[in-house]
Amino acid sequence: MTASDVPSSGARPAADGVLDLRPPKESLRAELCRLGFEYSSADQTGESWRDYQRGVLATFDQTGKTVTITDVKTNLGRTLTLEELKAVTRIDTMTAAD
Fold it and tell me: How far apart are CA 95 and CA 57, in angstroms?
């Protein structure tokens, strides 16, 4: 993987020297981080994020308009918009449920 393969947040060091590598607050990436997902991989079709503890895969294309969240054990999933994802407070799967 080259540096050009890594998703860029467009972050630049601020005048105070702080380099902020967090995703934009109003983004699928920020919401996936909030829910405990970790970046997994990217290719020409989009990105994959995982929550290994719960056995969940999240995939989305480069438009960033929707994300599909799938239980990797059952292959059951749902496609959500950013607004719908913001309303999610918990994800129950066959692997883990609160």
Answer: 12
